[in-house]
Design goal:
Helix content is about 50%, strand content about 10%. By secondary structure, it is an alpha+beta fold. The chain is built from seven helices and four strands; from the N terminus they run αβββαβααααα. It starts with 5 loop residues before the first helix and ends with a helix. It folds into two domains: about 80 residues, Trna Endonuclease, Chain: A, domain 1; about 110 residues, Four Helix Bundle (Hemerythrin (Met), subunit A) (Up-down Bundle).
Amino acid sequence: MTDSTPEADLLASLVPQLEAEGYEVYVHPSRSLLPSFMRHYVPDLIAFGAQKNVAIEIKRPSATAEESLARISALFEGQKDWDFRILFVSPNTTSRTLTAQPPSLIQEVVSEVHALVHGEHYRPALLLSWAAFEAVGRALLERRLAKPQTPSRLIEVLAAEGYITPSEADELRLLAEKRNRLVHGGIDVEVSGEEIDRFVSLLQTLISMTSEAGH
């Protein structure tokens, strides 16, 4: 599946939801990660949990799909440690695209982050910083990041394109975990002013790159 398919969009939306629930998620997993009863079948996604594991298959409705899914479902009979979930997508299902924002507007948002940090409101500062991060990523790579992005994919794309360093990517993954917990109700998550300061510094660097690129 390519990045632009409805199936890929649905998978991308599932990752942060499952991670927020405490699962370790693998999209298009390698066979080495699969238990022996799946040796002839690779799900679109697997998620390892403390209580139970999940396998997810994405399909477009059809008679042949129903037949193959019945065979796959039979593999999970008696597997108490696994849940098998089937999600259907319509061929006409598409995610909305978002317009790239001008650097000046992204800079205004960063100024609002500064105000939140000044008032020691670090949790909302993180969420607003992340909004600015996705906006500046879209400004840099408008076609590739036109649709709403999961935090993990946003980091992966910007790192692959050389906009962020490996160490910056590692720190962003930690912030992404806190961001996911916050948006799903984990309001006890701790965010420090130092973390936001480093995030803002990175945002300023990325904003300057949009200006150099002529956006």
